[in-house]
Write a structure and sequence with these properties.
The structure is a homodimer of 277-residue chains. With 277 residues, the first copy, chain A, is α/β, with parallel strands linked by helices. The first copy, chain A, contains eleven helices and eight strands. The first copy, chain A, has an eight-stranded parallel beta barrel with strand order 1-2-3-4-5-6-7-8, surrounded by six helices. The first copy, chain A, is globular, with a radius of gyration of 18 Å.
């Protein structure tokens, strides 16, 4: 998906919501366990209920991999189902891969060819070699970890260099030299909403994928105010707060209500910033 | 596997060789493609031919994932086959995962419970939260990227902090506070053999997993001289140089010869350092 198509999708849905499909057999409603593929059945119902309010879906691969080859089947069926229901939605493989050369090339092939993802989250520790093979795919995105929302993000991401610049700023700066802002997004945790202003100075034009709103405690209002740019430039993720809002038979309806609630708040900010009328 | 068991294995085999199973359908001998599962057939023959000369195997997960659920089946069969042939060998999931909290816990469950790996390679960017769930598993290992052998390792790993210490040194120091040297290994690229002396000052007791010998250009002699400690403390990986040494029907025999060649060189260093008689 191109940047223009992503922006069009956001304006059409009046939403920059990304729904995280972190699907765990132990957390889904019990009545789904009778299905052949409970994970896919859960996703299918969530997707049917929420796709009008979402600009993106983000399956977290750990949850699928933990089930072995069955989990990969569920993932493939999920991606194909999203494409069937709504062809223009942005689909992110939350994989946080970080390898080099031929290994990285294989990951790129896996996520962009074997599966039809639009973007993949990548860890920057090994530098350009990790990202390079992903940049060879047209209209596909590398989504690079910059500042994460977890407690121990401070272990390394905040280490200042000799000029007093923290590591995450070096990642933001260096990674922009690797590709255009039609190819490169950054992951920036929402629990650091005040840091978004500084990040926007360093990466004014890149899309930011912002996890951590909802269950992890970030404020959507602050994220929008500090992080939005003139083409929106934000995908804000919520996972548990939507998909596990109810664990009863009404889970899809409750998920829909939660997603629409966030979409409606996002609509206010999109209007306020003049991105929709 | 405990550290004592690993050292015992190294002394028994007179080898600290780790064989990387980076298995690509496009690179394996053509006559194997007639098998139901050519990847597993290739691995099976490689394992049969080489396990007497190796202390560890390291499947690189990207190669298996790129084949979807079939690849995960091949991986599972490979791990089970290694355990069947030789119960005491160390098996590493070269996954370079780096996620947090519940996601990381799922990865730990995948690699240590669903599959029976002894260790997993992990990226340090998100800090302690990435490694913590892996440390809960007894006799299992977190193998943390410190200094990698790729060209763009310089992008971030060599950024000096305010005290002039590069990022990889901060990773080596901080990660040692997370767990004992019975749980934590570090990945250190062999193309930086001269750096191994400095690394041994910072991490004297941890095992180091050293890729990059052979195809990537590192020297085994330098690695042994600069990196060995009084319990060996090294696992040196070779992948392509062994498994693709021949792409004809004799591939397993040629792989065996290449593995034995490295093992015999390793035996010299183990004897020189007084680790075997």
């Amino acid at each position: 998906m191109t940047k223009q198509q992503l922006i069009k999708q956001i304006k059409l849905k009046k939403s920059f919501l990304c729904i995280g499909l972190d699907v765990d057999l132990e957390k889904i409603p019990k009545h789904l366990l009778q299905f052949d593929d409970p994970i896919f059945e859960f996703n299918k119902q969530i997707i049917d209920a929420t796709h009008h309010a979402a600009a993106a879906y983000k399956p977290n691969l750990a949850f699928y991999e933990s089930l072995g080859s069955k989990g990969w089947d569920s993932l493939e069926k999920t991606v194909n189902y999203i494409r069937k229901v709504t062809s223009d939605i942005f689909i992110i493989a939350d994989a946080k891969r970080g390898d080099i050369g031929n290994t990285s090339a294989l990951y790129a092939r896996t996520f962009f060819d074997t599966y039809d993802f639009d973007g993949v989250t990548l860890a920057p520790y090994m530098g350009y070699d990790t990202v390079s093979p992903f940049l060879d795919f047209k209209d596909k995105w590398s989504i690079i970890l910059a500042l994460t929302s977890n407690k121990s993000a401070t272990d390394f991401q905040y280490i200042n260099d000799a000029n007093g610049k923290p590591l995450f700023e070096n990642v933001l700066k260096t990674a922009q030299t690797w590709g255009t802002n039609d190819q490169i997004m950054f992951v920036v945790g929402a629990t650091k909403a005040e840091a978004l202003q500084d990040i926007r100075k360093i990466a004014p034009d890149n899309f930011l994928l912002v996890p951590g709103v909802g269950a992890q405690g970030g404020s959507l209002k602050e994220v929008a105010e500090h992080g939005m740019n003139n083409h929106c430039g934000l995908l804000v993720n919520s996972s548990r707060g939507i998909i596990y809002a109810s664990t009863n038979e009404d889970f899809a309806t409750v998920a829909k209500n939660k997603a629409v609630e966030l979409q409606q708040e996002m609509e206010i900010y999109l209007r306020k910033f003049g991105l929709i009328e």
